[in-house]
Amino acid sequence: MRWRPIFNILGLLLFFLGLSMILPLAVALWYRDGSATAILNAMVATTAAGLGIHLGVRGHHMETIHHREGMAIVALGWTLVGLFGALPFFFDQGFHSFTDAFFESVSGFTTTGSSILNDIESVPRGLLFWRSFIQWLGGMGIIVLSVAILPFLGVGGMQLYKAEVPSPVPDKLKPRIRDTAMIMWKVYGLISAAEVVFLLLGGMSLYDALCHTFTTMPTGGFSTRNASVAAYGSAYIDGIITFFMLLAGVNFSLHYQFLRGRPLAFWRDPECRFFLAAVTLLTLAVTWDIWRTVYAGLGEALRYGLFQVVSILTTTGYVTADYEQWPAMSQLILLVCMFVGASAGSTGGGMKCLRIMLYFKYCYRELFSLVHPHAVTHVKIAGKRVPDKVMRAVMGFLALYLGIFVVASILLAGLGVDFTTSFAAVAATLGNIGPGFGTIGPVENFAHLPLPGKWLLIWCMLVGRLEIFTIIILLVPEFWRK
Amino acid sequence: MKIIIIGAGEVGFHIASHLAAENKDVVVIDKNPEATRRVADNIDVQVLVGSGSSPVTLEEAGIHSAEIVLAVTDSDEVNLVSCLVADIVSPGTKKLARIRDEHFDAYIEPLRQNAPHIDTVINPEVEVVKTIERMMTVPGAVDVGEFAEGRVKFVGVRLEENCPLAGKRMMDLPAVLDGRRLLIAAMLRQEELIIPRGADRLMAGDLVYFISEEHALGETMAIFGKRSEPVRRVMIVGGGRIGFRLAHRLEALGFQAKIVERRPERCQMLAECLNKTVVLHGDGSDQDLLTEENIQEVDLMVTLTSDEETNILSSLLAKRLGARKTITKINKFSYLPLMSAIGLDHVVSPRLSAINSILQHIRRGKILSAISLKGEQAEAMEAVALETSEIVGKPLRRIDFPKGSLVTAIIRGQEVIIPTGDSVIAPDDRIIIFARRQAIARVEKILAVKLEYF
Do residues B37 and B53 both lie within one domain? Predict the structure, then answer.
């Protein structure tokens, strides 16, 4: 492992993170909400730390970064920004402990949206802005991660998307990431700008529109209101947010293709079709279930059903209804949504539609081989063969995901958390959704969980966000061998 | 008419012998002295040892006076280059090339427009797949050909013993048919081709060729008592180029197909390129495999491996295990007469297909298509009746058609006429003629322009 180039990049990352705190600082000063000092302190600390690390190892360029260094940068990078991003919360007196500040910050950068805040509206506006903004920054990281870095590293079968953004230099990370990142960030910025405009048209204040856009596009789910999106009680805003959550749940390279004048890009992509089919089917099922049992009108049932399915499936985690009051079938469907997640290459989390699709195809292939023992078959996507290597990576991913889910839920229950909350909290953090069931449901939060439990969930958020392998691999001794 | 044939393989050999029998001036070029000797020993044609892609050899063969160059070697590349060289040396010569690689499928038109200026690309594999497709669409038929863009079919069926037509004389047929129309063009009895006359009898076991309009086909087949259960499940043995093409085509047509292939790497490739077809790794003559894959439920078994003995054995085995129908690929013409003797009626041959396509381009006059029948003893030709030819304007019975030939259909615009002795051919009618090999040259002459016209 070559540490110096790694820290070179991490230092740079922290430096820019520190600089970006100028935005919440401006907001704090504008509203004179008293959080300016905390943010300024954090800003100075982060910038200084970043600059210090960067200068300390300067002179080492990143041309020679390969698989191992790549994984280390990803894993350490997210942890470090999580730590330093927590500083504004920590320096403000509103957050009780560093654990809580760290939890909130990691929940932001991993675009999870689980909160430990009991009363969001009492938090100064500058800090709330930072809380939303770090989700947007996290989303930027995720896009690069899932479109450029993970396909390159071949994590969890993501190399399927490798061919889509061809690189002239096949085994070097840098040129590929830079080019791809610039393109994807433009797309991300463009769609975000559109959402701000549409939310303003719906009567939201600029501050709320910005904060909600910052948490919709990365499928984060932090809101500036205690009641989340339900606080606005507007069908228009529900609709706009649903639409943009859907956009955020689709592979960003498809958006790019669409903007480049290929209107059928979405339809041609099998994963996108699967994702939209899942949204449609699950929404219909939930709507049918809650119509007449919870909501009198069909339109009303559809509005809340669609919003909640999209919100959970894209792993955003906004709420417009207390779905714990819904019948069991709807709750179970939402639980399944937590595991399925959004598309690969989107900002959403979960297992990803692509992997679920491949899993189904693999199962079918196994059954098929039982009927035709001599048959030669391949798992195919869009008529193209999926290499066995990718299939193995996908199967490994799914197994690890479920394995971690089981172990972490048992550990959480061991800390005295009740049955439903234990598995829901792990599912909601591992899938980067936000709210779960039980005592961390749509109208509750994570504040009451025991301290070690919070650390466990912080770890779950990072593991889920970084596609399991990048974090787990740090635990494998082979990784550290020279 | 002078024709240069490049490549003295099976296709080159048979075309040469065909054309020589019709007194055409043929030069056969091949690199291999063995092959040219075989040609020279058996056929009355000129041979030349040398490369067909060499301009010197082509000049030596007299390309400037040649009307047609046929490039039919086993290699697509040699055929292409030969045509290219021929195009440079003698741009006026018509060029026909056998090209089998599917990558060229989309480039046939550019090849005609651009440099090699190949007038006709002959792909026997495509022809074979088309033939199999036709056999599938006419269940019960042994041989199916098409004329007039498919509006008229010519069909060969095996006459069963329990068929009401068996044992009847031709002149008695109208009584049996009871108003239904049927024109029997030819019979094949013990490898002997008969162009029937009034007193000839239909015998059980005959292969009977008749002409029918497409829409009347079902009715006509019913006369012969043939079940017309449509084909649904197809098994293909041999995943070579033809097998792959066929599977691809069947997928497009919505049939359920299984394909058996022996080479594991080829199986991988097939599984990758085919989406609905079940690709099976194994031997087409492996009884366990066939049973495991429900051979008894299979409507059609097509054996297409490169080894004809394997094809024959697999087809026989499949029949025994309950497959309803088999189609066997045979390349050696010497096996063709054997096939009906061992009960395998449906045979396809890429070489025969290649010869058919080449023949129709060589025929004189206004011949549109020609199909050579089993064993090549006869041909069915579709031709335009020229105003100046002697067949136009008088009743058929007054035309002096050569012995062993028969006008089986007249196509006038959209109408298809099954002719009687009183029918009159009008100018620009298309006619379909059956002719034995010996009569072909004279039929061509009749179809061509009258001598006194000049």
Answer: yes
